[in-house]
Amino acid sequence: MKTLNKKRLITLIVAIVAVLAIVVAAVSVFGKSGEMQVSNKISVAEAQTIVDETFTSIAKKTAGGAKKVLEKTTVTVNDVEYGYEKDVILSCTYSSVDTSGALSDNINNLMADAYGFYLDNEDAGKKTNATKVNIQVTNKIKSYLESANEISGEITLRIYETESGMKLFLSENDVDICTGGLVAVTEAIKETTNVVYHGETVDITKKNTLRTGIVDCISLESFESERPDNANPIVKIVNDFKDEFYRNFIEADRWMYLLQGLGTTLAITGLSVCFGVVLGFIVAIVRCTNQMTGKLKAIDAVCRLYLTVIRGTPLMVQLLIIYFVLLLPLHIDKFVAAVLCFGLNSGAYVAEIVRGGIMSVDKGQIEAGRSLGFNYVQTMVNFVVPQAFKAILSALANEFITLLKESSVAFYIGVADLTQGGLKIRSITYSNFMPLIAVAIIYLILVMILTKLVGILERRLAKSDH
């Protein structure tokens, strides 16, 4: 058996290595052909001209603040390399002003000035538009930028060869870095809903004119943020995968939804397992006692009713009834409802597993225990249950694994578990494949870990038999 397992392992390793070799060879072949896709190589000076023209053109005509930032911004091309996607990779250094530091702390001042201007016009019976607000606050924004600290750093940019010629493609992050946080400040102003004016907080949610007027001072023209996909088929697949992975998990730290959901799932499963095991053993002992001694008939009837109801109805229906019908009117938290439901459901199956294990132990074991002077409870604890536990270990492990997977329905009552985390990412990115596959892989890894641990426990128990 061990020799067979070794052969399978070696075969698997060889297969993986072979697949990787084929992929690397394919990427190498296609990559080399892609390296010459740029029709004409460009010099550092030509790349610098493209960069300068692009940054000069991205400020809107009415955006005095943005023009001021770009006047103080320089991006210097130091070296060029050629990629595999009709692209030229530029190693650059940039210098600018700390736009974010200069304006972020003064957003309320700008808003307050604009709001005061709005009130003065309203009192005078004049209409306030975004252009008037723009004129009102432009000089103040320029004064903040004049006193801003200087910043500098390194950045990598890319020029792509397109049908219309060589073009610098900038992401929002690229522009934000090179302009000292101009994009971030613009978004912060757009999201501002309150302003402190003369010591009072004023809601300006519906006064879009104020925000628009200030944003117009620092807004940029639409610049290309999506790079052309000129890669060969293999590299394109890799790029698409990287883009999807970044968009679903890295961007805005969306992977935290899965991490937080995983913690909730493990907490629900762990607590439900503890509750289910305790409840299941109690029910099993009651039923076995009734079968062996004829005692506890009334309690046994209650236990049989519990088993019939729980095992005869769907888990999801039980969850909805327990939360919406029984616990929601009592204002009990949905997490508690999930633990209670899964614990009750698991307890029913654990009870029958344990009962089957106890009843499978030879009756002679009980008689031997009683003949040694042990009472019924001592005999069960010292002789019967330990033997039954070895017999039911695999069945119990399967039940726990099943419980882990079934806990995924907790999202139906709003519990932020692992499945809900994946669905949250899906609702943001409108991507079905990546979030749902990630959830499935995490569940698979958890199940494999549990299976491995149970296998180790089984081997140790088998050794103790010898």
How do the strands and helices of this protein lay out in sequence?
Elements: H1 2-35, H2 44-57, H3 64-71, E1 74-82, E2 87-97, H4 99-103, H5 107-123, H6 130-146, E3 150-162, E4 165-169, H7 172-178, H8 182-190, E5 194-197, E6 200-203, H9 208-218, H10 233-250, H11 255-293, H12 297-312, H13 315-327, H14 334-360, H15 363-371, H16 376-406, H17 418-429, H18 433-465
Antiparallel strand pairs: 1-2, 2-3, 3-4, 5-6
Helix pairs in contact: 3-6, 5-6, 5-9, 6-9, 8-9, 11-12, 11-14, 11-17, 12-14, 13-14, 14-16, 15-16, 16-18, 17-18
Alpha-carbon distance between the two ends: 20 Å
Please report the first level of CATH classification, the CATH class of the largest domain: Mainly Alpha
Total number of distinct structural domains: 2
- How are strands sequenced across the largest beta sheet? 1-2-3-4
Along the chain, the helix and strand elements come as HHHEEHHHEEHHEEHHHHHHHHHH
Radius of gyration: 34 Å
Global shape: elongated
Give the helix tally.
18
Q: Which bin fits the share of residues in helices?
A: 55-70%
* Major sheet details: 4 strands, antiparallel
Mean pLDDT: 83
